[in-house]
Known about the structure:
Layout: E1 6-13, E2 33-37, H1 46-52, E3 56-60, E4 82-83, E5 92-98, E6 107-112, E7 124-130, H2 132-138, E8 142-147, H3 152-155, H4 173-185, E9 194-196, E10 205-208, E11 212-213, E12 220-226, E13 228-229, E14 237-243, E15 248-253, E16 268-271, E17 285-292, E18 298-302, E19 305-309, H5 311-315, H6 325-328, E20 330-338, E21 362-368, E22 379-384, H7 393-406, H8 418-425, H9 429-433, E23 441-450, E24 461-470, H10 475-493, E25 500-502
Parallel strand pairs: 1-24, 5-25
Antiparallel strand pairs: 2-3, 3-4, 5-23, 6-20, 6-22, 7-8, 7-21, 9-20, 10-17, 11-17, 12-14, 13-16, 14-15, 16-17, 18-19, 18-20, 23-24
Amino acid sequence: MAYFNHAFCKSWLADGAAVAGATSTSAFTAGQFGLVDGKSWKTDTAANISAAGNLAYLVGGNYHPNDKIGNNPGHGGYQESIKSKGINFRYLSRLGVADVVQPAQAEVKLCVASDCAPCGENLFVRLDVKGSPALRFLNHNAYAIGDSSGDAAANGGALPGLCCVDGQDFLDPAMALAAAVQMAINDPIIKPFIEEGADKVNGVPAEFDPGSTTGTLVTGTYTGVATSTGGSGTGATLTVVVDSVAGTATATLDSAGGAAQGYVVGDTLTVLGTAVGGATPTDDITFDVGSLATNVSMAITTASVTEYFTLSEVLNGGYTPSTDPVTAQVSACVTLKGAYVDTKFGNCSFDTRDHYEKEPVSLIASLLDETGNPCNDCGVATSSPGQMAQTSGETVVRSLILSDRYMQNPYNQGNADSSRIREIEGSSVIRDSVNRSALYKVFYLQHSVPRFNNPSGVFDNDQYLYEIFVVPGSAADTNLTAMWAAISAQATALGNIIPVETGL
């Protein structure tokens, strides 16, 4: 008879604090998780279990509230705690922890120089959208082309500043790039998948709470006032308006404050009284950052000074274009981001066969000349891929339902009465215990048991993989972190060097 290797996976959802020592497995409540001595069937430390030479068991409390599901008199163990197979610390082959990985959207950045848009010619931008979300929506990858003549409909009105005046040789690159990009991203085919990004990621103050003063200030408008802050950001300069009669002071971010970055809501910016008409430095004004600008997608540099705008601001009067961009040393960059598709069905219609999409699209951008060929000498395009989230609640609930099936606990689906039958059987309790919108941390233990009595000499290991899902930062997370470290220490003491791997 031939021997074949055997692989098995069991999953738990842990959401409780550590179980007290010497607790019987029958006392485990739903979501509790512990390490159990295989002789006493009570919780104990890894060190004690190892010293006694006993097998260890991973045990989790069962979420099923009823001992029998539905009307099945032949099965009396649904409420029983969920146990692993016996674990000998000598034969651990892997201990691991997979931390939460937050989703990230793909980004693409286009930069053009001062001489990229000659008068009388068009600058063309091509944006390609690729990936599973686009394929499922369109059955093919998608692209759109925009040009510097712009699209008044996409802009919501006329596009001023896109015509050269007498003597002008090049169109301002910021205007040309903004018009072409706005036209492309409003194409109805790719519009669901791409939008303005943020060249400045947060950190740009958009609104300040009214200032509080500590002395008597002189009425006036003070532009380009430097600030100090005890918060997160740097580089802000303000235009401050003081009304000493009303006792008020307001502030806006000065246009020369393009270096402002890294701020968060609530940061305090302080303007010295000597800079705003105060008699002494004690006549200071403090402003709190009330909100941050969003979608600040364009960075426009003029003679080494960079300012930040949205596409709409550039095209609708918030930016003054240069009629001699080469001499003025104007260059421009725009940042775009791809969609992060998140598909989820409700609990009533939930089926493990439902498609759930957690994938960011892929973006490719390029500049074209009027013949449609890539323009390699008039700009630079760079891109960064997106990142899928790990591990989503959608993944967790499916793993738990599959593990339940191994224990012959049903999860009825596939017919019109499935939701009703699941209610009767009580089999939806696992699904309802998982936050399908959350991300979970996962603890892994792989146990490889050698077959000492194996005549064939092939496939001589049985492998068991255990995975425990926890909410990051929860009591269960703290419990499992300590348990994994203790198991690793005992395995090492027995000659099995098995460190806990992280970032899997």
